Amino acid sequence: xxxxxKLVQIKKETKDKMKQGTRIQVGMGTCGIAAxxxxxxxxxxxxxxxxxxxxxxxxxxxxxxxCAFEPLVEIIGPDGDSMIYCRMTVDRAQEVVDAHLIxxxxxxxxxxxxxKK
Amino acid sequence: xxxxxxxxxxxxESCQNYKSLELKxxxxxxIEEKKLSDDIIVHATGCFGLCEKGPIIAIYPxxxxxxxxxxxxxxxxxxxxxxxxxxxxxLKIQDPITQKRLKGFRQFDIFRKQKRITLRNCGVxxxxxxxxxxxxxxxxxxxxxxxxxxxxEVVEEIKTSGLRGRGxxxxxTGLKWEFAQKQKSDVKYVICNADEGDPGxxxxxxxxxxxxxxxxxxxxxxxxAIGAKQGYIYVRAEYPVAIERLNHAIKQxxxxxxxxxxxxNSSFDFDIELRLGSGAFVCGEETALIASIExxxxxxxxxxxxxxxxxxxxxxxxVNNVETFANVPVIMVKGASWFNKIGTKxxxxxxxxxxxxxxxxxxLIEVPMGTTLREVVYDIGGGIPNRxxxxxxxxxxxxxxxxxxxxxxxxxxxxxxxxxxxxxxxGGMIIMDEDNCMVDAARFYLxxxxxxxxxxxxxxxxxxxxxxxxxxxxCEGGGTMEDLDKLEALAHMVQETSLCxxxxxxxxxxxxxxxxxxxxxxxxxVDKTCPAGVCRELTNFYITDQCxxxxxxxxxxPVGAITGWPNTIHKLDLNLCIRCGACKQAxPVGAIxxxxxxxxxxxxx
Lengths: 117, 605
Known about the structure:
The structure holds 2 protein chains of 2 kinds.
Chain A: H1 4-19, E1 22-27, H2 30-34, H3 37-50, E2 56-61, E3 73-76, E4 82-85, H4 90-102, H5 112-116
Parallel strand pairs in A: 1-2
Antiparallel strand pairs in A: 1-3, 3-4
Chain B: E1 5-10, H1 13-17, H2 20-33, E2 40-45, E3 57-60, E4 64-66, H3 74-83, H4 130-135, H5 140-148, H6 151-161, H7 173-182, E5 189-194, H8 203-210, H9 212-226, E6 230-236, H10 240-255, E7 271-277, H11 286-293, E8 317-321, H12 322-334, H13 336-339, E9 350-357, E10 363-368, H14 373-380, E11 390-395, E12 402-404, H15 414-419, E13 428-433, H16 438-452, H17 458-475, H18 481-497, H19 501-505, H20 508-516, H21 518-525, E14 540-543, H22 552-556, E15 562-563, E16 571-572, H23 582-586, E17 592-595, H24 597-604
Parallel strand pairs in B: 1-2, 5-6, 5-8, 6-7, 9-13
Antiparallel strand pairs in B: 1-3, 3-4, 9-10, 11-12, 11-13, 14-17, 15-16
């Protein structure tokens, strides 16, 4: 039976879980999906398994509001540092996986912030 | 070698207008002069998002920001700060917001003007995991309502918050809930209006797809407040992703005991079901929506009785829009007094806008009410591309009107927009530049309402059609001065005599463009020309002597109507020209202009 205490417990547990490791968020509102986010999502999922990457949580999220720059992939590191890659394709996602996820180097060239300047 | 100090100059559009690049040169020269170049690196960066304080200079690693820097201040900054390490307090930025290290995208300065309440979880949590919603305070508003408050207190809280309906009208939500609460009936209903039909508006879709649980929670809170046990979400069938995620969310909420019988062990029951609409615009009107849920043809009926008295199957019903509902859980958790401090006094909170049209950063933005149009268009939207001039801002979709560039410093809220002859609507915001023809824009929106009119009442069914006929005639060059008078009279007639909101607001685009852009109508009717070069029948393109002979127009012409050698003035054959305007867009020097047909004949014989 659900009650208030249990709600608090779920909140605490999930909050801790969300902070652990690296969180990858793919913007998958209709706008993102139309721009090809699902392919990118599937690809990232396969790559994480193939490279046996640990402590990475891949998740789909709603629209981030930057619809002109979809598909968007946000990578939030364990320290809370966020990096948003925009206009992702499977090929670009491959570069991001190799550089950011495997070698820990941020790929500035696909950064949303850089592009919006 | 590693530099001791970095000087960063804002090279954003706005600061460049304040000659920030000249400042950069001056700083570089001075550093050279003082032989500091090994120590210090100077570079220009993108907009800091603090454009009203521009030009901005930042010095790292000290993280000191200087505002409104002028050429004469450079020497002082270099001598005092850079050499002697004494901060020039006089120029230091007032608001020390940027002192802390930037962590994450949403703390970047350009996003600081935005405040996300409705979209708080969109792009942050997974819409498929109820746990993540709970981790972001989800369902705590519901539990607070159920255990710490009586239904009357819940309604009071929403009333105090000042929340107004985000679907367009801006009716106070608390009052709506109170009406429904006061009705004596054993059966009542809560309906979420997710029939988002305005062309170019998609904020409701974003909420449903990104944060479906917030709607479920808000509906349950509303159900508790007004005494309803059943909720319906009326969502367009054209939103398959939203439907899928809503269904998933409802299933999860039942599994977690957050919907259904005895929610959170409080003996309150609430069920939610989806009803799919087939995309009729009129079903966004609450009585038409109710008719559609009942299985009838979606047509509005006369109010009163209001749905709060006699709604779905004759029972008291409360209908709120998605965006309105999305605010409710936050108000419950953080309190009405937190919410009504955001935004303006009469329109508290935030509003989501779908920015579109001639603007650099299209997308969804959420700003506190009272933010000016200028901040939205230039600071958040990034301004108009290709250095074009802003002509008008269209808000409220087919029910709204156009706001002229003169009113750009108006703070946005429900009442100011109404005063300008437009309306908030559901939040579509289309930016128009000098290449948009306002008569054509009015025709576009009217064309939409003619298609979407349900046909029940004559003013809307026949009136809008006749108005469209007149507009078509004007755009095709057959308009007379009499037509303009007729158009205006018809517009007011339709506005005043239509049955529902669709008809009452349908003439708004025409009325507001007639008011603010009368000269364009006159150009179409009297001069038989379209100043923006949009209406084909009234446009002839003409290459002026400013042509530099770059050949771009000839390359872009789809029918080969332009001839000429490189570096010579090109010629346009009007017999071949299809008036598509591709040449005008391609021309880098603005040498291609539009002229009315007669003038063209005189010029070229």
